[in-house]
Amino acid sequence: MIAVVFALEFEAADFVSAAARRMCVDVWHLGVTGQRAAAVFETKLAKQTPALVVSAGLAGALTSDVGVGDVFVGVNETTPFLLDLLPSIARAKLLTVSHVVATVEEKKRLGVETCSQIVDMETAHLSRICADLRIPLLSLRAVSDTCAEDLPLPGNVLIDPQTGRPAPGLVFKHLLKNPGSAVGLNKLITNSKIARKHLSDALNEILPVLSRNSLDVPA
């Protein structure tokens, strides 16, 4: 069995209905971001051990050559033999951080300092767990925001740092005080839906390949 793992339900929405019909694929929603996602992931693995994990979701861009909807394998967080199975999927170095990277300044700084092209909040945590358990992991990310624009809301408004989930109440309060942010928020939502669709398309392309090979895992 392959487990396709998403932190947030929003990220999985385009893929989940099709995946439900796949006999060899389970979809796991961790429901939270960052290290919280890792804790939920470990609980699920204690009950069921997949032959292979696909860590899927959205990411932000850290370099100017990465655009909305681009899909990448996180090459530094993917079990090496899986890279040979997917030569047609673009590759990027993925950085995992503990907070939402919201400003152009921070995006570009992190890109330069870490030589990474994309950023998320979960994958490195999941990758370490899989490595410890000797479970192969593929990191797959679709880009929802470029490094040329600030996010329309502060990171601690988009994702509540206390819960690790989107915070509608905080967003509403922020928009009341900053109504001009609504245009940018709508653009981010639109871009995220584009990225989500491209992510689903990529999963539908690669899962048959992974299904054929997931039982032939190198020792």
Considering the chains and any ligands shown, give keywords for the structure.
single chain; 219 residues; 8-stranded mixed beta sheet; globular; 10 strands; Rossmann fold; two-stranded antiparallel sheet; 45% helix; 21% strand
Architecture blueprint of SSEs:
Elements: E1 2-6, H1 9-19, E2 25-29, H2 34-47, E3 52-61, E4 71-74, H3 80-83, E5 91-92, E6 94-96, H4 104-114, E7 118-120, H5 123-133, E8 137-145, H6 155-158, E9 159-160, E10 165-166, H7 168-177, H8 181-213
Parallel strand pairs: 1-2, 1-3, 3-8, 4-5, 6-7
Antiparallel strand pairs: 3-7, 4-8, 9-10
Helix pairs in contact: 1-8, 2-5
Radius of gyration: 17 Å
Distance between the termini: 17 Å
Please identify the structural class as seen in this structure.
Answer: alpha/beta
Tell me the number of structural domains. Answer: 1
3D structure, described in words:
There is one protein chain. Helices cover 45% and strands 21% of the residues. It is an alpha/beta fold and 219 residues long. It has one domain: Nucleoside phosphorylase domain (Rossmann fold, 3-Layer(aba) Sandwich), CATH 3.40.50. The longest helix has 33 residues, at 181-213. The mean pLDDT is 90.
